[in-house]
Amino acid sequence: RMQAMLTHIRDRISEKMDRNMLAERFYLSPEYVNAIFKKELGISTSACINREKVIHGYHLLHTMGLSVSEVAYACGFNDPFYFSRVCRKILGVAPDNLRGRKYFS
User: Fold this and answer.
1) How far is the C-alpha of 77 from the C-alpha of 41, rounded, in Å?
2) Distance between CA 44 and CA 67 in Å, rounded?
């Protein structure tokens, strides 16, 4: 189930998503979805979703040269400033500073 949920998140990276939506899609309770993420990955569902969105955003910034605002919207964030905050929390660097740096292959 974990791999199926990760694939679902990655396939719908630009959509709003939370544990309730995953629970509904996979016929589980929201609490059980959180338990699976904690057990399998050691992080919460929302932390995993944000991590996947930031990784996708990094690839867009790194390869496509989009602006931070364009990347934020493409990754499903409604606010570029919130995307920047999440990016700094996860990667330790602002999205503007990601261009030219190799974080992921």
Assistant:
1) 23
2) 29
Please identify which residue in the block is written with the tokens 């509904």.
Answer: 24
**pLDDT one-digit tens code per residue, 80-99:** 999 999 999 998 888 888 77
Q: Measured between alpha carbons, how far is residue 53 from residues 4, 28, 33 in Å? A: 17, 23, 18
CA separation for the pair 27, 7 (Å, rounded): 16
SS (H, E, C) the chain: CHHHHHHHHHHCCCCCCCHHHHHHHCCCCHHHHHHHHHHHHCCCHHHHHHHHHHHHHHHHHHHHCCCHHHHHHHCCCCCHHHHHHHHHHHHCCCHHHCCCCCCCC
Give the integer Cα–Cα distance in Å for 87 and 55: 9
Q: pTM higher than 0.85 for the full model?
A: yes
